[in-house]
Amino acid sequence: MVNQESFLRQRIMKAEEQLKKQQRENREKEMTQVMYRSLVGEGLHNLSIVDLNDLGWLIDNNIKEIEDKIINLHLINKLLLLLLHHKS
Prior knowledge:
The chain is mainly α. The protein is built from two helices and no strands.
């Protein structure tokens, strides 16, 4: 049986985890907005070093996701070509 104190500790830990997750998501959305604003000509001159580092991480992450999708598309294309060649 779980006593009230350990129950409350578990609830606090869960709430803290949810808060950290939400803060990460909010930061990522904020940096995404900065990235898009910079693409339409707004400068990056008023960003802090932390902001620039986070923006760099976001851009690197987006590039990696794009590269992974390209690789997957190439693999699917090769598989389809093999299947078509095998049928004929």
